[in-house]
Amino acid sequence: MPTRPFIPPRDFRAVLRRVVSLTPSTKHFEWEAIEGGAFEFYAGQFVSLEVPRNGEPEARPYSIASAPRGDSRFDLCLNRVEGGYVSNYLCDLEANAIVNMKGPHGSFVVSQPVEQNLVFIATGTGIAPIRGMLAEILASGKPLSRDVWLLFGVRHPETILYREEFEAWAAAHQRFYFVPTLSRPPADWRGETGYVQEHLRKLFAGRSDFRAYICGLKAMVDEVRFILKEEFGLDRKQIRFEKYD
Ligand SMILES: Cc1cc2nc3c(=O)[nH]c(=O)nc-3n(C[C@H](O)[C@H](O)[C@H](O)COP(=O)(O)OP(=O)(O)OC[C@H]3O[C@@H](n4cnc5c(N)ncnc54)[C@H](O)[C@@H]3O)c2cc1C
What we know:
Layout: E1 10-23, E2 26-35, E3 46-53, E4 56-63, E5 73-79, H1 85-91, E6 98-105, E7 117-123, H2 127-138, E8 148-154, H3 163-172, E9 176-182, E10 192-193, H4 196-204, E11 210-216, H5 218-231, E12 239-243
Parallel strand pairs: 7-8, 7-11, 8-9, 9-10, 11-12
Antiparallel strand pairs: 1-2, 1-6, 2-5, 3-4, 3-6
This protein binds flavin-adenine dinucleotide (FAD).
Flavin-adenine dinucleotide (FAD) binds next to strand 4, strand 5 and helix 1.
């Protein structure tokens, strides 16, 4: 990002301090880099984790799901992909496990200072980097000077990852709007239903006074980018994204 100095990626070893199941297939991990010096990153960047496979290292990228806390700790949020090697290896780890990693990587970070309204759009574990970005923006405790929206699409209510945290932030910040939307809602769901794309159109059609940050699988990211550029007229520079596949 031009607005922030580049942090060169380096090699680290990281220890798993704590792991929490968020849903039957998704886990929240709290890591600490223990070798390689202080681990610095910007909210929204990712690390490359390495696990052994037939005696060789196998690496995959994972978004950091927390904001920097002034030490070498960071969170990840991982989905157990059916038939996937690294995600299953990591989701089977217990506290005190150690992995090699490299990072930070990527330019999916919020431009500072925040001078425009922000719209975050995520599906599934695409919420990971956005949780970090929001923590960075909201945790200062100062009132927001711009509107900040989170459109978060998942299938079922119990898969709204970090729901309590986002609801607490929405209660504490007048200008933070949390819009979870379910593609397979139960009969008693009173919130939004359908896909994030529809809510984007409903809430922002005709507006271009915001920056958008999108994260999730390719199909959603590509469709949202198309809507923002072709339908709303946003400039490329107003749209940042990270694709998971
Ligand atoms: C920049 C970046 C950041 C990422 N951050 C995260 C993150 O924070 N949390 C997270 O859970 N994942 C994240 N991913 C995806 C992650 O890197 C792996 O692709 C994923 O964990 C699958 O790896 P695997 O070794 O288990 O599967 P593989 O053994 O590589 O693949 C097995 C099969 O699963 C399919 N597959 C691969 N990835 C996915 C997926 N995400 N969803 C559904 N099917 C898939 C493959 O096409 C293949 O058919 C990120 C990817 C990128 C590029």
